[in-house]
Amino acid sequence: MQELPVQQQGDTVSSLVYEANDRMRDPVYDCVRAISFLQNQVSQLQMQLAIGQGENLCIQMQHRDGNENEKNAREEEERERREKREGNI
Question: Which residues form the LOB domain (predicted)?
Protein backbone atom coordinates (compact mmCIF):
# COMPACT_ATOMS: atom_id res chain seq x y z
CA MET A 1 0.00 0.00 0.00
CA GLN A 2 2.77 2.42 0.87
CA GLU A 3 4.24 2.01 -2.61
CA LEU A 4 1.04 3.28 -4.22
CA PRO A 5 0.44 6.97 -4.89
CA VAL A 6 -1.72 8.58 -2.21
CA GLN A 7 -4.52 9.22 -4.73
CA GLN A 8 -4.87 5.46 -5.38
CA GLN A 9 -4.69 4.23 -1.80
CA GLY A 10 -8.35 4.91 -1.01
CA ASP A 11 -9.57 2.99 -4.06
CA THR A 12 -7.21 0.15 -3.23
CA VAL A 13 -8.51 -0.10 0.34
CA SER A 14 -12.10 -0.09 -0.96
CA SER A 15 -11.30 -2.89 -3.39
CA LEU A 16 -9.61 -4.96 -0.69
CA VAL A 17 -12.56 -4.51 1.67
CA TYR A 18 -15.02 -5.46 -1.07
CA GLU A 19 -13.02 -8.57 -1.92
CA ALA A 20 -12.70 -9.58 1.74
CA ASN A 21 -16.46 -9.18 2.29
CA ASP A 22 -17.20 -11.19 -0.81
CA ARG A 23 -14.86 -13.96 0.36
CA MET A 24 -16.68 -14.09 3.69
CA ARG A 25 -20.06 -14.46 1.92
CA ASP A 26 -18.82 -17.10 -0.54
CA PRO A 27 -15.32 -18.41 0.21
CA VAL A 28 -15.27 -20.72 -2.81
CA TYR A 29 -16.02 -18.18 -5.54
CA ASP A 30 -15.03 -14.92 -3.78
CA CYS A 31 -15.08 -12.26 -6.51
CA VAL A 32 -15.62 -14.59 -9.46
CA ARG A 33 -19.31 -13.70 -9.67
CA ALA A 34 -18.62 -9.98 -9.68
CA ILE A 35 -15.88 -10.34 -12.28
CA SER A 36 -18.13 -12.47 -14.47
CA PHE A 37 -20.92 -9.91 -14.19
CA LEU A 38 -18.57 -7.08 -15.14
CA GLN A 39 -17.16 -9.07 -18.08
CA ASN A 40 -20.70 -9.61 -19.34
CA GLN A 41 -21.41 -5.90 -19.04
CA VAL A 42 -18.23 -5.09 -20.99
CA SER A 43 -19.28 -7.54 -23.73
CA GLN A 44 -22.74 -5.98 -23.96
CA LEU A 45 -21.29 -2.48 -24.12
CA GLN A 46 -18.84 -3.53 -26.82
CA MET A 47 -21.75 -4.93 -28.84
CA GLN A 48 -23.74 -1.72 -28.40
CA LEU A 49 -20.69 0.29 -29.45
CA ALA A 50 -20.24 -1.85 -32.58
CA ILE A 51 -23.92 -1.36 -33.48
CA GLY A 52 -23.62 2.40 -32.96
CA GLN A 53 -20.46 2.54 -35.08
CA GLY A 54 -22.23 0.60 -37.84
CA GLU A 55 -25.19 2.96 -37.75
CA ASN A 56 -22.83 5.93 -37.85
CA LEU A 57 -21.07 4.48 -40.90
CA CYS A 58 -24.41 3.98 -42.68
CA ILE A 59 -25.39 7.59 -41.99
CA GLN A 60 -22.02 8.84 -43.25
CA MET A 61 -22.34 6.78 -46.44
CA GLN A 62 -25.90 8.01 -47.05
CA HIS A 63 -24.71 11.59 -46.57
CA ARG A 64 -21.80 11.02 -48.94
CA ASP A 65 -24.06 9.41 -51.55
CA GLY A 66 -26.49 12.31 -51.24
CA ASN A 67 -23.67 14.80 -51.79
CA GLU A 68 -22.46 12.87 -54.85
CA ASN A 69 -25.99 12.85 -56.29
CA GLU A 70 -26.28 16.61 -55.77
CA LYS A 71 -22.88 17.13 -57.40
CA ASN A 72 -23.85 14.95 -60.36
CA ALA A 73 -27.12 16.87 -60.77
CA ARG A 74 -25.28 20.22 -60.71
CA GLU A 75 -22.77 18.98 -63.28
CA GLU A 76 -25.59 17.75 -65.52
CA GLU A 77 -27.36 21.13 -65.30
CA GLU A 78 -24.12 22.94 -66.09
CA ARG A 79 -23.50 20.66 -69.07
CA GLU A 80 -27.02 21.32 -70.38
CA ARG A 81 -26.56 25.11 -70.00
CA ARG A 82 -23.21 24.93 -71.79
CA GLU A 83 -24.74 22.91 -74.65
CA LYS A 84 -27.57 25.44 -74.99
CA ARG A 85 -25.09 28.35 -75.11
CA GLU A 86 -22.93 26.61 -77.68
CA GLY A 87 -25.98 25.77 -79.77
CA ASN A 88 -27.14 29.43 -79.70
CA ILE A 89 -23.77 30.85 -80.75
Answer: 1-56
